[in-house]
Write a structure and sequence with these properties.
Length: 460
Amino acid sequence: MSTQRVFTGYNVVLSDGQPQPATLIVDLTTGKIVDILGRVSARTDFPDVGDADWIDAGGKFILPGIVDAHVHLNEPGRTDWEGFWSGTRAAASGGVTTIVDMPLNSIPPTTTVANLEEKRNAARGQCWTDVAFWGGVIPNNQAHMKQLVEAGVRGFKCFLIESGVEEFPCVNEDDLRLAMNELQNTSTVLCFHAELDKTASTVAAPADADPTLYSTFLASRPQQLEVDAIALITALHRQYPSLRLHIVHLSASDALPLIRAAKQSGLPLTVETCFHYLTLSAQHIPHGRPEFKCCPPIREEANREALWAALLDGTIDCVVSDHSPCVVSLKKVEEGDIMSAWGGISTLGLGLSLLWTEARKRGVGIDRLVDWLCVKTAKHAGLDDRKGTIQVGYDADLLVWDPDAETKVTKESLNFKNKLTPYKGLALRGRVDRTFLRGLLIYDGAVNGFTDLEPVGALL
């Protein structure tokens, strides 16, 4: 049995970002790329490699595996919403080879080392992708933060507004100072759900407002909530300039001037946005469709264009899914009640196709998508020493991508647990043919996805 697997093709996206002819040689005993040849190889060049270990992509792209740095898998505690088995399978089907799991929506949340270990125990043997973990900042858990860093969390997330689950309360400015004092001399990152409600009226609506209208929900989460939160974050950042801070799922273009000013001043601030903010707009959301609800909300078309401009000029660093599922009953689909529905959009398995479909309209090349989905997300999660690019010594996390294939999102095509998404019915460009984790096949679109495969994901 060969210990090598060889990948060859005319459009391999290497660390310089440009598709080019190349051959990748992978050591299956280590899962690492051990050599890269600057040419397309012939089958006869590798007579000792078995047919199953010869991957000729032809003119299709060979891309680095996607690192999705914002995913809610909810296990243990809310495994009926999602879980490691179903969530990582969905991820693998979309070319994601590493996810970083958020600290909330599981019970218990990842706010202590003991809770982290409980989550890791639940994940063992279930993961089709590699999985890393964020820790959480809640009131009065600052004594656990350095221990969590030592235990391997990639960083921390906090909320400046109520999270929606009682076991993960939001923090105030005093809590943040305590946390930042603990973390300022570490190499970690503090991530913010950046909405701040100064009026305590968020999520409320006039008594006569129609809860089935998306406009009712949108009015309850105005851009000012994000602006106020980011103003506080950047003000605190100037007092802790050595600590890297990160804004998760930015939706409000009105906050971009604050972000640009902070970055231009030299503060180590990074920012992500999500597939839904780049591909959907409020004007096109039908009445009574709670599957479009997320927090912060999808905003107007002009806002979407401003987010795209900020992504293209580097103000926004990366794109993630914020896959945040729930059981169908919590989405209030039958009632069409957007205001009382759970806020979260399910995306795992669709992100690359969603972004590629939109990028092609704008003349944006695959190199930019690889930067946003692989390179920058791996760096954000502190995994860029082994993930996010195709280069010698890195994990052989790879996908074969057909950029011209056309697919339609159907309920049957979804691999996450609760098959409810605003993207159902959309026609998308691009399809993942196969996904490899450390050189091992974890998804094969030609044989019904996962037939005869086993989960080989590691806990990072």
